[in-house]
Amino acid sequence: MGLVKKDVEILLSRLIEEDYLNEERFAVLFAGGHFRQKKWGRTKIIHALRQKRVSEPNIKRAMKEIAEEDYLATLRKLADTKWKSLKGEQYITREAKTMAFLMQRGFESPAIRQVLAVIRAGNKE
């Protein structure tokens, strides 16, 4: 039998009015959760929110919730862990694989290059 379109619209508008459906809250919780739990970078989170058709202003608000210090600390930790796991690889291969891993996670290239420069400086082997 299903639902009538008019009834669905009424139910949805009531849920929105009573703040059960809130796109901004969803975007903020999605971004924070995927960053903390899955260690996703901003690029991947933004792409996922766009796939879910979240509005651009709500995406921007959600990105502001991720603290820059936490973001860079997570990036450094992931980069360091990946770098150490590739100990037997050649230097260039090690760097390329680490960069590819971090880009796949959704981190931005300039931030990755900065972190890799710090790792290279600290790990003169």
UniProtKB/TrEMBL annotation:
Belongs to the RecX family. It comes from the Bacteria. Its main location: cytoplasm. The lineage of its organism: Bacteria, Pseudomonadati, Bacteroidota, Chitinophagia, Chitinophagales. Signal peptide: none annotated. Residues 69-116 form the RecX third three-helical domain. It is found in: Cytoplasm. Residues 22-63 form the RecX second three-helical domain. It comes from Sediminibacterium roseum. The keyword Cytoplasm applies. This is Regulatory protein RecX. Keywords: Cytoplasm. InterPro entries: RecX_HTH_2nd, RecX_HTH_3rd, Regulatory_RecX, WH-like_DNA-bd_sf.
